[in-house]
C-alpha cells in the first residue's frame, strides 16, 4: 500500500514540478521534504484558469513538506502539503507566436488525464495545501511600450499573501472526510471537487517599471511637478491595499474520464481599504488597471494555438465580490474619498477548442465620491435621492444562459448580487477576433439615476488623472478589422454647476451689475439617456434608404469595420438656474427643487450619426477622410424662458466653462502624444475632410419666451414669445473632381411672434385717457397679455388624389460650388431659391418703439438704455466677442494662381465673388396691418384667443406675390467668345402682383360702448363680418434693372432700368371718407415719427451722433411732424379750409418746443465745454482770475438751463 501511495505522489509531483525525478522523492516515515523546486508554469496556468495573454514565467518553491496520513486512513484523511514560500511571476506576452512555441516545448505530457479517475487523482484532489507566504509579481504592458515613453509604462503589482489554506469540502462547503466528499459524484455524470480557499493577510504594492529608471525624463524627487501642477514623472512605488482577508469557493468539474470540463472560483472579500494614496500613486494605479484591461481583452490571442489550452477547462468562471471598497487619495492641497458598496466582478469563458467566448460582468451597488479638502466638503458623485421604481436587474440577451452552471446546487452568482445595482456592465467578447459580420465584442452598460456636482478644482484633478491613466491606443485591444457594439443606458442624471460671481475669474468682465447676482449655479437634468454605437443600428431620422451616397449602409448590405453608426437620445433634457436664496453648497440643493428656475427644456432629443470610409478600409479616424458622413439631430419640443438676469448669468457661465475647459486641456495634455498630433496636422486640409457630408436638424415644436425683469419675481411676465412648428434644416457638402458643392435647405411650416402690450392705458386724439378694466381676460394667462405681431397663415393646395399640401412659411434652397483652383473660377456658382409665404405683420412702428423702450433698448431720452449699454459692454468683453472676429479667407504665402510660394498645391478653397449667380426670392400672400391705439382698444373689447379677423379691423396692405430674381448675364451664344463676368449680378428683376391697400371693415360697425350697430352679439362678442378680398385683383408691377456695360475704372457698379411694367387686371375702386383719411394721415404721421425716433436711437446706439451731428438727430426725432406739417399746414392750403385742419392744431407749439430743445442742447454742450476748460485751467499754471471767470460763466449757463426747464414746463 505504501508503494502504491508513493507512486501516486510521484505521478502527481511529475505533473506539477519541472524536471522531477524519482531520486528526489525520499519518504521518511510519513513525511517527504523537498526544496528549491520549480513548478510547471503551464500546468499552473491551466489549473488556475489564467487569461491566455499571461505567461507564468517564474514559479518557485523554497521548501515543500508532504505529510501523509496513516495507510489505513489514506482514503479518508487528506495529504497535507506545506510550503514555506511560493514565488510567482506573471508577465504579459507581447508576441503570442513566440511564447506559444517556447511554452509548448516545455509542456509535459499528461497521459493520465482523460484516462479515468484513479487512485492518484483521488488523493491529489483531496490534498490540503498550506502556504505561509505567496509572492506574486504581475507585469502587464497594455500597449505602453508602443507609445515610446517608459515613464508611462504600466506599473507592476506585487501581491503578498500570508497564511494561505486550501482544503477539500463537501458541496455545502463543510469540512468532511474525503469519502463523504467524493460520494456526491457517485450518482452524477460528472466528477465534482469542492475546495475552499482562505487567507489571513493580503497586500498589494505598485512598483515602478524597471524601464522607467532608464527614461530620459526620469528625475528623482516626488515634489517635481509639471506646468499644470500635476505630479506625473516620479513614482517610486506605493502600497495600494493592506490587510485584506477573505475566502474563495472553488468548484472543479470533470468528465467521468477525468477530463477537465469546468472551473468556478467565487472569491468573497468583506472590505478593501486604501487609507492613503498619493497623487503619483493614483496615476500609476489607473495605468495599471488600464494595462490589466488591455491584457484581459486582447483580440490577437488564439487559445487554440497554445498547448496549455488542452489542459484547461472548457468552461471557467471567476467571480470576485467585495462588500465595501474605500479609497482615499491624499496629497498637498487635494483629498478625494471613493466609497463603493457591493462591488461584483465576474469573468466567464466558454471554449470549444478553437474559439473562446468571454462574458465580463461588473456590478456596483453604490458609489460615492467626495472631495473632503474643499470647504465645506462636497459630494461629487452619488446615487440620486429621488424615488425610483423598483425593477429587476437588466441582463442583456447574450448574458442569459451564457454558460451552463458549474456548481451543481444553484447559481452562486445570483445569490451574491441582491437588488438592482447602481451600475451594471456586461461585455461579450470572442477570441480570436472574428471577421465581420460577426461582432468581436458587445457591451451593454446600465446605470440608475446619478447626481454629479461639478466642483472646479476636483474636476481638473480628475480629468488630469483620467487623461494620464486611461489611455488606450487604437489596435491594442481589438484589431482594426473587427466590429464592435456598445450600448449605454442612464435612467437619470442631475449635474450641478456652482458659480460664485464674486470671484473675478468667474465673470466675463469686471463690472458692477447687481442683476446677475440672482443666481448661484446651474443644474442640468437628463432622463432616459441612451447611447448606442453599432454598425447594425437602424437609423430612422437620417433616412439612409433614400440616400444614394450611403448605399453601403442600406438594409441588407453586409456590415464591416468601415462603417460606424451612433444613436443617442433622451426623453427629457432641462437646464435650470439655481437662485441665491436656495442653498447651493452641498447636497441639500439637489433635494429641494423650489429654488430652481427652468430656463431650457428639450423633450425627446435624438442624435444619429452614420459614417463610412471611401475605400472600405477600417474606420480608424473620425471623421473618415474622403468618406461619407451623415448627422441628424431631432427635437420633439424645445422650450426656453429667458430674462436679462438669466442671459447675463448664462454668459458668465459660458465664460466660466471656457476658462475651465482651457485648464482641462492643459492638465490633460499628454506630452508623449505630440508626435501623433504633429502627424495628424500633416498633409492638406482636403485630405482630412470627408468627401460627402450632410447635417440635418429637425424641431417639431419651438417655443421661446423672453421674460421681463422683476426684483420680486425673477421669472417675470413674458415680453416676447416666439413659437415655431416643423423646422427642418439640412446642410451638406460634396467633394467633386476639382471643386466642392455646399448645399443648404431650410423649411419652416409655421411661425408666430407675440409681444407684450405696452400699456393698458391708451390716449385719444383729444388727449383724454381711456382706461380698460382688468377683467378676467387679462389675468393669469399669457395670451391675454401678449399681442401677435408676426404670424403665418398657411395656404392649402388640394391635389388630384384628394390630399392636401400645406405651403410652408419658409422654404430656402442654396447650392454653392467652389473650385479648388483659381484657374477654374468659371465653375464658381451660387444658386439660391427662397419662398416666404403666408406672412402676417401686425402692430406698427409706434408699437415697436414702445416695445424698445419697455425692453430697455431705448432709454427715456431716446438714446441707448442703461441695461443695453451694460449688456453691450459685457458682450464686447465677454467670450462671445471671439465668435464675431473675422478670419482671413485666403492664407498668406499664396500666389495669384492659387499655389503656395514653395510651389506645392495646398488645395485650399479660394473664396471670392461667384462667376455665376442665380438668386430667386419669392414672397407669397403677405399682409401688413397698421394698428394704432383705436385698433388696440377694439382688440381689448373684442378679445379673441385666436385673434381672428384682426387685420380687418385696421388699415392693411396685402400682395399676392413679390418675386425678386438676380442673376448673371445670359450664357454666351455659339461662336461668341466666353468672358469672365465683370459683376456677379448683372440683371435684377422685381415683380409684384396683387398689391392692395384696404381700409378697416369692422370699424364702422362699432360705437363707443363696444356694441355693434345692429345690436347682435355672438358668444358675448359683437358680430364680425368677414371682408371678401379679391385674390386676383390689385396692382401689378415689374421692373428689370441691369448693370451698365460701360467700361469704367470705377469699382462701383452702375445700374439702369431696362424695363418697367405696370398692370391692372381688374378695375380698381377707391372709396374713403374724410374721417378715415384724416385718421389714416394721423396714423401715418405717428408711424413716421416713430421711425425717425427709432433711427435716431439706433444711430446713438452705434455712437454715430458725433459724425452725423446733433441737428440731424433732432430732425430725425421729429421726422413725421415736420414732413406732414409742411404738406397739410393751413397757411399753404389754396382751397380754404383743409380737411386736415385738426391735425395742425398745436403746430406752433411743436415748433416752439423744437426751438427750446435745440437751445437746451446748445446750453448743455456749452456746459460740457466749460467743465473741460475749467479742468484744463486748474491743471495748468494760469492765474486764479481766469479760473474764476470760467466758473462764473458755468454758473450763468446753469441758471439759463433752469429757466429753460421752467419754460418747457409752462407751455
Key traits:
single chain; 1211 residues; alpha+beta; two-stranded antiparallel sheet; 21 helices; 40 strands; elongated; Chorein N-terminal domain-containing protein; BLTP3A/B; coiled coil
Shape: elongated
Q: Identify low-pLDDT runs.
A: 99-112, 144-148, 218-223, 509-516, 582-592, 671-681, 760-780, 889-908, 942-946, 972-977, 1003-1029, 1130-1148
Name the quaternary structure: single chain
Major sheet summary line: 34 strands, mixed
β-strand amount: 25-35%
Please identify the structural class as seen in this structure: alpha+beta
**End-to-end C-alpha gap:** 136 Å
Number of helices: 21
Counting DSSP E segments of at least 2 residues, the number of strands comes to 40
Overall average pLDDT: 76
Helix-residue proportion:
10-25%
What is the radius of gyration computed over CA atoms, rounded to a whole number of angstroms? 42 Å
Keywords: Coiled coil
Pfam family, one: BLTP3A_B
Protein name: Chorein N-terminal domain-containing protein
Structural commentary:
The chain is an alpha+beta fold. It is built from 21 helices and 40 strands. It has a 34-stranded mixed beta sheet that branches. Strands 26-27 form a two-stranded antiparallel sheet. Helix 1 packs across helix 4 (119-125) and helix 13 packs parallel to helix 16. The longest helix is centred in the C-terminal third of the chain and has 33 residues, at 1147-1179. It starts with a helix and ends with a helix. 26% of the residues are buried. About 13% of the residues have low confidence.
